[in-house]
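Notes from hallway chat w/ T.B., transcribed later so I don't forget. T.B. wanted the structure written out for a chain they're using in a teaching module, and asked if we could keep both sequence and structure tokens in one place. Agreed to drop them here.
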Amino acid sequence: MEEAGSTSKVPLSFWIVAGLGVLWNGFAFIGYWLTATRDPKAMAQTPADMVEALNHTPNWVMAAWGLAVGAALIGSLLLVLRRRWAVPAFVVSLGGLLVLTIYQVAANVPMSLFQIVTIWLVALFLLRFSSSEAGKGLLR
């Protein structure tokens, strides 16, 4: 059983990062879901060259993308719950992201280098952060 008041020992910065992680990965998951289900409103707002690329994207790539965003969202939620399983969830997410990125580069998917780098930086930061917080004993 947890001691009363033990959440007061968790720094505010932890909660900010965990909350922003949920928001970031929640929006990423929504974007994936709208794309995977080919939501008409979302597809109407997507540039034509991206829609064309999505129409030729193999199912295994869509699965890797789903794994990447799904595991990242779960990892972020586990951070909020202060669970050690956040670390392996972020590792799984990076595996999916690696497969997705390799495909995007090889297939010349119309994404900017800025988008790809930003996604990788956030993903690596969340893995490093969760690992560091686990090492400090903040994750159970």
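Follow-up for T.B.: The longest helix spans residues 12-36. Might be a good example for the class.
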